[in-house]
Amino acid sequence: MNALLFxxxxxxxxxxxxxxxxxxxxxxxxxxxxxxxxxxGGLVIHCMFxxxxxxxxxxxxxxxxxxxxxxxxxxxxxxxxxxxxxxxISILGSFVTxxxxxxxxxxxxxxxxxAPLNPALKSKWLMLHTSMAFFxxxxxxxxxxxxxxxxxxxHFLKNKRLGPLYQKLPSLDTLDEINYRCLTFxxxxxxxxxxxxxxxxxxxxxxxxxxxxxxxxSLITWFIYAxxxxxxxxxxxxxxxxxxxxIIGFFVMLFTFLGVNLLLPGLHSYK
Amino acid sequence: xxxxxxxxxxxxxxxxxxxxxxxxxxxxxKPLRELVALEDIQEGIIVSTCNRVEIYVxxxxxxxxxxxxxxxxxxxHHIPLETLETHLYSYHGEAAIRHVFRVAASLDxxxxxxxxxxxxxxxxxxxxxxxxxxxxxxxxxxxxxxxVAKRVRTETKIASSAVxxxxxxxxxxxxxxxxxxxxxxxxxxxxxxxxxxAKHFLNNGVRGVMVTNRTYEKAVKLAEEFDGxxxxxxxxFDHLHKADIILSSTGAPxxxxxxxDVEEVIRRRRQKPMFFIDIAVPRDIxxxxxxxxxxxxxxxxxxxxxxxxxxxQRNREAQKAEAIIDQEIGQFFKWLSxxxxxxxxxxxxxxxxxxxxxxxxxxxxxxxxxxxxxxxRLEACTAAIVNKLLHQPTSLLKRTGQxxxxxxxxxxxxNLFDLEVAGQTTETEELGELEE
Lengths: 271, 436
Hints:
The structure holds 2 protein chains of 2 kinds.
Chain A: H1 2-25, H2 29-57, H3 65-87, H4 92-109, H5 125-159, H6 172-205, H7 213-234, H8 239-263
Helix pairs in contact in A: 1-2, 1-4, 2-3, 3-4, 3-5, 4-5, 5-6, 5-8, 6-7, 6-8, 7-8
Chain B: E1 2-9, H1 15-21, H2 29-37, E2 41-48, E3 52-59, H3 62-76, H4 81-85, E4 89-92, H5 93-104, H6 116-130, H7 136-155, H8 165-177, E5 184-188, H9 192-203, E6 208-213, H10 216-225, E7 229-232, H11 236-239, E8 245-248, H12 259-268, E9 274-278, E10 295-299, H13 300-308, H14 315-337, H15 341-365, H16 372-400, H17 406-417, H18 428-434
Parallel strand pairs in B: 5-6, 5-8, 6-7, 8-9, 9-10
Antiparallel strand pairs in B: 1-3, 1-4, 2-3
Helix pairs in contact in B: 5-7, 5-14, 6-7, 7-14, 8-9, 15-16, 15-17
């Protein structure tokens, strides 16, 4: 049952990605609507999969790489659908859904068996800490997609060679706005994830902060986005600079999430 | 008589070359006088816009005329002829007529169908008329070009608002700013194109307009027109940061806005994007301004590039316009060929002969008992009168036909004696209609 739901989600995301990529070539409103419903359907199935797993395991299913990648993918899709609705920009899907599909695909590479919960994770903080972290990451992923779109569109406008995507991509202002909104979502979530993590660490390991690689890298990620937010609010950083920082931030965040788990041994290395 | 066109346009020369060859609208008398003073150049018009510099003349000697005009252009602007020549095109005969009709109908424009060019040619023609460098042929030619342009505009969709430089600018602004409703436009300098672009922006809902001009009164006047605010030219940089979209079209010979200025302004705006549209030739804004983050600078050539990407769908309309032009060329060419002396001489003789016959017949009808001998002498006498009267004008026409202003006499004779020459069409009504 659980495996079937996973496959269905995968199928729906694959189809949606395909549709959004076709939309990139032929931006027909109908196609945009269909893509939207397919990805939304995929999200519903994905939620069912996660809920089913939660009920089966008896704890928040974000305890190993398979689960967390899957949840990351879910959060990205959820965040994307919210932004797509708010800004009415289907083409955002052409840049974000492939990301969600790839992440879900990678999650399938890791063992999916439900293992007994690591005693250290047995806490009411688990759900709060992890889901906040992943929704924060998802906001940064959407910002990453918007940043790439921004750089493409800005390249067209600066070099005055209006390529085939020029008409289809939204205005620079809209893309910059999405970037900013993602930041105002993602940054507080990341902040709370770090704080809740510290509180949890105090109860579980007896210390708020132990410079575990995950903690260190989370802090680096946090500083990057803090700098971006600060720049935006004070000297008006925006546009290209903000887009590039959002892209750098996204890669650092990916390393915080995956690199640390896979490469650097530490308290957070759950596989 | 031949119509010859020599010129260069955005298709053959970059803005760097065009700004060197441009004629200042305030100083048209000198070049026009020098132009028609050239050997074997009878009439001349100079059209100088940001996108093209063209000279239309009438001459008997096509090859000589073309080379003299090229030399004139080079000498007048102190450019080596070898440098200039690679950018110049020249047409004569039917090709020249087609070219000018196409230019006037905006088929040769950077933005095909943009309406400004017709007004610019009308202005150029106005100078030629004022300094009397144009005459019968070019007058008729230009009026014909205007009527062709009008036909093209009314009968095809080529001149719909979607195909102008200003529209291209508005489209770009929307891709930069998204919503224009909280944006302010600043006009630096004046000019038809600039004002048109400003109107386009207002139609697209920009919040306000600021106007500056070296002559403050002009700025005030224009600001009133747009319900905007006039700004002293000296205080430009105190106000520039309030503008999101800047339309510049001054007659300044140098850049008036450089990258340093813009860096300063953008800092003051806390990096809010700015869109500079430089439609002046020579350009007002240093091209390095485009390198400043969050600043976008488009000059005329850039706008051309933008528009070129949209042009395909308009090709069909352009083809319809070409068909109209084909028709009109035929008509005009016929008229032009009638300006030669011979058919007019024939027509003039015909008219005199016609009168002589009519009067003779009237006289003979009441003169029953006239002797055949007497009748012959009467006929010979009247024929001699006609011949004597016509001798002077005929020989003059034939003589001037060797290289003088035949067309002047031909035209005068036609009007004086109401002659009908094969191929001639009366277009006086049409001309009157065009004066509006």
